[in-house]
Amino acid sequence: MAVDQGEVYGLTTGVGALRTVDLDTRGTPTLRLWRSHAGGTGAALGDAEARATMLVRLHQLLRGGAGVTPDLTAGLARAVEAGAVPTLRDHGGLGTGDLTVLAQLGLTLAGELPWRSGGAPVVEPADTDGLGFLSSSAATIAVASLAVVRLADLLRAAEQVAALSHLALRGSVAAYDARVLAAKDDPFAAAVAARMRSLLDGPDGQQREPARLQDPFGLRALPQVHGAAEAAVAAAEQVLAGEIGASAENPLVPADDDHVLHHGQFMTQRLASVLDALRAALPPVLALSHARLSALLDARLTGLPAFLADGPSGSSGLMIAEYVAADLYARASTLSAPVTAGRTVLSLGLEEHASHSTWSARLCADLADLVPSLLACELVTAVRALRIAPDRALGAAAAGLLERCDWEHVAPDHVLGPELEAAAVVVRAGCARR
After folding, report:
1. In a shared domain, residues 230 and 375
2. Does one domain contain both 329 and 408?
3. What string of DSSP letters covers 299-327?
4. What pLDDT band is residue 51 in, cutting at 50, 70 and 90?
5. Neighbours of 111 (CB within 10 A)
């Protein structure tokens, strides 16, 4: 990077509160910076997250705004192509740049830290590569991207699980009628309703006779609740695409000249906001799942034995599944609290704000880990109901999911753990891919 304009943050000066201090460029300033910022504490990113971090950072570097040397970019490209996986410990990200994670990645490329698996030729970074390489939220973007994809798939899985519950409860499809959804400008709810109709249609597209004039909200309000979550996913995907393709390094080195620009484009406030919104949209979806599970245990709504029990008087059946789902819902709710309301002041008060998108991304990943277990509670209950009354699912497209639920049907009271785990596997596999 050639610079003719005098002082440049991180190149001729220190960083953070040291921005007014002239940088001693003797020795290896890039490696000094990476060593001091590596942190190296906290849980290590998973292989997929670590690899995604490398890929996001490579894509950003190829935009040219970081001002790092071609040798460093090429070294990262070789590592990506070789399938190498670094150990990247994640403590230290605040949504203003994943300094600790990218410092560890830089030191791994430079041969000072070992690869967790695989490897790539050692890169000798130039003195001008230090801050330019670190100035990115690539790890946050990577974690968020993988989590959002998982959550999007789980939303579609939740629709299929809900469809089985709808069949078992002999629900009405009137709430999903295209004329109802056309009466309000809500394309996401309309799309959910259309998918539900396709899952619930009887043989030759015939509608089934409902058991009630109006269903509980767990069935009737599903398009509106799931539609809000679908809209939140779409917003998150749009913002993530922008972040992946951004040149947000500070300072920015425009490709058309050597004039360096100092700015705040690294602040991932919009990403933090949409991830908070996505997490806030998920508990209502899970609340409806819990509500449908409760309905399936109610003999007044199903016409089947209470708690779907089979055995001596007082048998509990699937009673405990409702408790497990309630616990998981409470845990999901705690993971959905917003992070954007917090404030962090750093570096002697000179960096007085942070977006906290990193925390929101990690919470999205934690939610994606938890959701399958909650949906599994509903799935096990719906499957039990439909095994008691199999005629209720005849001819429905949703019955395809029922066929994948191949765990043994044990009617008397027994330990439910193996069934719940098997159901979670089915949910994680993705009942429906977009």
Report:
1. yes
2. yes
3. HHHHSS-GGG--SSTT--TTHHHHHHHHH
4. very high
5. 14
